Amino acid sequence: MKRRFAVASLSLAVVLGLGTLPAVAAGTAPAAQSPDVDVTKVKAHLTELHSIAGRNGGTRRSTGQGYRDSVAYVKGKLQAAGYTVTEQPCTSGCSSGAGPNLIAEWPHGDANDVYMFGAHLDSVSAGPGMNDNGSGSAALLENALTLARQNPTMQGRVRFAWWTDEEQGLNGSDFYVRSLSSAQRSAITAYYNFDMIASTNGGYFVNHVTSAAAAPMKAYWDSLGLQPEENTEGAGRSDDYSFEQYGIPTSGYAMGASARKTSAQAAKWGGTAGTSYDPCYHRSCDNLDNINTTGLDRASDGIAYTIWQRAVGTGDDGGGDGCDTDPVVNGGFESGSSPWTGDTGTIGAHSGQSAHTGTRFAWLAGYGSTHTESVAQTVTVPAGCTRLTYWLHIDTDESGTTAYDTFKVKADGTTLATLSNADARDGYVQRTVDLGAYAGRQVALSFTGSEDGSLQTGFVLDDVSLLAG
Ligand code: DTR
Ligand code: ZN
Ligand code: ZN
Q1: Of 245, 164, 240, 226, the residue nearest 195 (C-alpha)
Q2: Chosen CATH of 34-311 out of 3.40.50.2300, 2.60.120.10, 3.40.630.10, 1.10.3720.10
Q3: Where is the Peptidase M28 domain (predicted)?
Q4: Which of 122, 163, 195, 261 maximizes ligand 1 atoms within 8 Å of its Cβ, making it the mutation to test the pocket?
């Protein structure tokens, strides 16, 4: 039997921080200001990578000490900055003796809304790999350090990756994506790749330039007047392809490899028509002189812009997807009970259970006798905003796998998800329901806990929200 004691609620104004927020015009999401990434610092990382190659026979190939030392350098910086850093040995599909992938997660924001930013850290045997791909590696490292220094409130989650053994066939990234569970793969909203972003005779190329994922990357270079083009040369040739094969949206920047600049491109970007974007591609001359600092700066800043647009908390997820304001109101139950209807007495800071975030939640059923309790609200589902998520803690005295007590999520009375005492575990689990079928429509969403006559099951609900699909 549960007892409910609501603690005295804070005033709505205090909960919302009213009076401290800047005034924002109705319907306008405040623009997150992305920081400048210091290209001098990006180049300092490149210099370190170049020295590492110099101590290891002039290469950072995946199977050599130059690669392992590159991993150690990047890892040390990230750990000092507060990242959760993992070395992932590549145990299948990589060259024999290849070093590990390096994965670094900024441990804030929605773990089910992950934005990945990756670059291969290995070079070819022939040279130190400064443009290919010290450039992408160093730009991501300085972006990661900039994010940690700024430490903004996060909405989505940012995960950086430095891949092993790309030059032998995209092997490190392929191994990583294959090792994920399908739930982990579907938590990745987009993957962004950076391979050769400082080509001396380069162009401004965006992978999948017209896609939704590319929108912030393209918008940043558009704002500099660069008129970016599709990265046709690099299509299917770098680590974004590993993610693409699993249906994960991808984009990224590149400045080009051995293909030649056209006269139209030379006219709009400068440089030499009829010459390779990177004349030192896969050669020993891919050294510190083979870096286009202006291009590297523009790419580094566009990465920061994309991180801020997509993952930093402003109420705008930056996808330009019509999901800028959560259509679910008071989904965390922190601000009284409006606009929830139904058994609103279930909403509060009850003792005996705790909130997922904040102090309040909805505790449906949990009496040990026949009871049904619901909370509901009507929302309009924007087309770009169809992923319903909620956090549920199921607490039961039942045992076994028979469903005696159930929790249902319904849309206009149609059941979209059912859980039961058989799904009970310690703590909250985030659940997701696809509302794609309701895009553009108004729908009554309800959450219902029902118990049979004996042995309690409580369904503790918190943080209901609609996210970009
Ligand atoms: N993965 C690249 C191969 C590559 C070839 N063309 C392009 C253009 C833009 C980016 C990458 C590439 C390599 O590492 O060699
Ligand atoms: Zn490369
Ligand atoms: Zn290469």
Answers
A1: 240
A2: 3.40.630.10
A3: 101-306
A4: 195
pTM of the model: 0.66
Residue 32: pLDDT band (50, 70, 90) is low
Mean pLDDT computed over 394-419: 96
Query: How does pLDDT run across 433-449, given as a tens digit for each residue?
Result: 989 888 878 899 999 99
Task: Report whether residue 69 contacts ligand 1, using a CB cutoff of 6 Å.
Answer: no
Does the pLDDT of residue 347 top 70, yes or no? yes
Q: How many CB atoms lie within 10 A of CB 333?
A: 26
Q: Tens digit of pLDDT for each residue in 385-399?
A: 788 989 799 999 999
Q: Which atom of ligand 1 is nearest to the CA of 239?
A: 1
The predicted pLDDT at position 320 comes to 56
Superfamily in which the 6-11+325-467 domain is placed by CATH: Galactose-binding domain-like (2.60.120.260)
Number of helices followed by number of strands (H, E) in the chain? 10, 18
Cis peptide preceding 292, ω within 30 of 0: no
Give the closest ligand to the alpha carbon of residue 137: 2
Q: Which of 130, 118, 87 is nearest to 191 (CA)?
A: 118
Q: Report d(CA 410, CA 443) in Å as an integer.
A: 10
What pLDDT, on a 0 to 100 scale, did the predictor assign at position 314?
A: 60
Express each pLDDT in 349-393 by its tens digit: 999 999 887 789 999 999 999 999 999 999 988 777 788 989 799
Strand 387-396, strand 457-467: pairing: antiparallel
Minimum-distance ligand 1 atom for the alpha carbon of 277: 8
Is any atom of ligand 1 closer than 6 Å to the C-beta of 276? Answer: no
For this structure, is 166 an active site residue? yes
Proportion of the chain above pLDDT 70, given as a percent: 90
Task: Name the residue ranges covered by the structural domains of the chain.
Answer: 6-11+325-467, 34-311
Catalytic residue (choose from 48, 87, 142, 166): 166
The answer, yes or no, to whether residue 20 has pLDDT greater than 50, is: no
pLDDT score at 429: 82
Of the ligands numbered here, which is closest to the C-alpha atom of 134? Answer: 2
How far is CA 369 from each of CA 16, 347, 348, 447, rounded to the nearest angstrom? 37, 20, 21, 19
Q: Is the previous residue joined to 339 through a cis bond, with omega within 30 degrees of 0?
A: yes
